[in-house]
User: What shape does this take?
Amino acid sequence: MPETFNTSYGLKIEIPEIVKEIVSFMRAKPVAEYKIIIGSDSELLEDKSADFVTAIVVHRVGNGGRYFWRRGKLGKFYNLHDRIVQEVMLSLDTAKVFFATLKTETARQDPESALKWSFEIHIDAGENGPTKTLIQEVVGMVRASNFEPKTKPESYAASNVADRYV
Assistant: This one.
């Protein structure tokens, strides 16, 4: 996957710049509650390779948000299980780098003015449809990495934001 993400304005930026944008967005209304979410979606192509999109979303609860996304084409995928697991792995890999950078940035900037935010990984799997048999496995992967998982219909970062660019 590429290192750069796209903004909704069409600019290309890397995770440290995304973190600064998100912290700035949160500091604009520091009393608000925020959810920072990472989710991925994919589409199987004719040659059995898959197009993956990972989204980073900051949601000011009850009052809008911002998002960043990146796309990459990866290997061959012959079944849905492997593709969904790859989506979750892409989200987790992104989350680990992003979360570490975010914690450093928020601690460095005036630790007295603590921002209220939670962090989630959105999984493009739900109780209805062919992905229902995968939920326990992928939720376990996310929890094992100490992140909060959300599945459909609550996984809007994967099923709406990332899905928009697949």
About this structure: The two ends are 14 Å apart (CA to CA). The chain has one domain: 5-165. The CA atoms of residues 49 and 75 lie 5 Å apart. Helices lie at 15-28, 80-108, 135-144, 156-165.
